[in-house]
Amino acid sequence: MQHYVIVFLDIYPDLGLATILPHDYIILGFHYMHMPRKYVEESLFKKGLWGQLLKLWQIVENDYDLKRLQEEFMFTIERESKETLKSLQEWRTFWHEHLMRGA
């Protein structure tokens, strides 16, 4: 894993992240998967970093353990997103049924 830390520091020398993501996910650039791809591509392209991130992800794609880590991360994002949408719907229902009718 040390190799990937070095790659990460070369790509993101001044990135100050305040996040609860596991360290490996940040090192491998998976945290960008929370945002729309087009936005990430445009933002990183302006900074000259998009190509470097793609090279890093090519390493991930060709490594079984790293690819598994990526799949786990994407599954986690998907599950959390579904839970968030479900919670929002529950709150909308609560708001409508209990608060909007003056209860």
What is the topological layout?
Layout: H1 2-11, H2 23-27, H3 37-46, H4 50-61, H5 64-99
Question: How would you sum up this structure, described in words?
Answer:
There is one protein chain. The protein has 103 residues and is mostly helical. It has one domain. 71% of the residues lie in helices and 0% in strands. It contains 5 helices and no strands. The protein has helices at residues 2-11, 23-27, 37-46, 50-61, 64-99. The longest helix is centred in the last third of the chain and has 36 residues, at 64-99. It is elongated, with a radius of gyration of 18 Å. It starts with a helix and ends with a helix. The relative contact order is 0.10.
Oligomer: single chain
Tally of strands? 0
Distance between the termini: 56 Å
How would you state the average pLDDT, rounded?
78
Count of all domains? 1
Q: In terms of structural class, how would the helical and strand content be classed? A: mainly alpha
Biggest β-sheet description? none
Beta content: under 5%
**Low-confidence regions:** 1-20
Shape: elongated
Give Rg in angstroms. 18 Å
Total helix count? 5
Q: Which percent bin holds the helix content?
A: over 70%
Order of helices and strands: HHHHH
